[in-house]
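Figure S7 source data.
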Amino acid sequence: MENQIQEAPSENSTKPKRTRRPNKRPKNNDDALNAVQANAQVNEETPSTGRAQNSIWSIEDFPVAKVEGKLRFHDLNLPDRVIKSIAEMGFEYCSEIQAETLPMTLLGYDIIGQAQTGTGKTAAFLIAMISDFLDYPLEEKRPNNFARGLIIAPTRELAIQIADEAIKLTSNCHLNVVTLVGGLSYEKQKIALETENVDILVATPGRLLDFARSRKVQLGKVECLVLDEADRMLSMGFIPDVKSIIRMTPHKELRQTMLFSATFPKDIQALAQQWTYFPKEVSVVPKEATNQNIDQVIYTVEADQKWPVLKQLINENGGQRTIIFANRRDETRDLYERLRKANINCAILSGEVAQDKRVKTLNNFKEGIIQVLVATDVAGRGIHVDNVELVVNYSLPEDPEDYVHRIGRTGRGGETGKSVSFASEDDAFMIPEIERVVGESIRCEYMVDTSL
Ligand code: AMP
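Tokens for the predicted adenosine monophosphate complex:
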């Protein structure tokens, strides 16, 4: 992994401090930074946060041993209410992106972060935002529809996942999370804006712009702005919308901005610099293009053998949580029907399924109520469900990068996973290109349906 933090901010930093929080966390700066810089020093004690302790719960109820090379959330002097949620979510140590960014963002610095899904970047920016809002509560009442924090994500699925994590992280404090995404009821979202304080607004660009232009949501007092998966926003053509949205927020000197992207093509580099104020740059790039925990295999099959071999595979791996990727919607529909007829507990996740149904499907899959999901690339992107045991590429993706995204749904968080990719005479020519992208050759097995 690569760490590109430019410099540790200090009282003597020559770069100007933002004016939004003149004395942001002055007492705690050294604690947080020292913790990162000296986390090689191991001792057993659990520090007090130095804040008023909650009489029912205190940080002592969440003991986490110091481990060399790892940063604990305890070491960051977070508000107790945030630490409590972190404890309830089962996090103990910061992931790398969290350890690299939080000491900076908690001081109010802007961040340009290179990190992919699966690194813990969502909690990284949410913890910084929530801690800031708790440390600096609003001094005066303002209409509900003024957003304090704004998170822009390219897809509905990603926005909903971010909102879910925000809800968990705010479960012990009075901060509301409102989600504005296309495809879900406009009316319900309008009512949410009218009836709740919009503390954290998570949105996709198009729907947000609709609401902002009609002044149903106000962005003029945004304190913290997050742009997630910026490269994908570019490739999906959202940058003009995002630019219009950012123009409605306070000047960059008066807000905190965190921008995350998996890749940094020139356009994103330029926008990142334009939108941030003396940013700290952090990069957490996986060592390998694909996860070493994934056992990858290609089944070479005749086209008419794909379905029987798939059925056999699913039956043999009875009960395993599985995602099957296909290239086209009609292919997913066809597969779904066949699986259903074969009494396999399955659901579709493709662009043609209504958004509320997709959310429900994903939740059912997460909870194990559904065993097999049949997905297209767009619908499957950015989805992180832990413990997916098997990914099947029923057809090889047309873009080899999608192969990496697809198989990355399994083998997460140190678990082992398996990917099986079907290659028939129509698409086997793509194997070398896929192997080039993953940087290794993939084991091939010739398969025929043996159950006949
Ligand atoms: P993300 O990269 O934000 O999509 O996060 C990937 C997954 O890691 C999510 O399921 C998070 O809830 C989980 N996660 C985030 N931070 C931590 C942490 N410090 N310890 C354990 N799991 C985490």
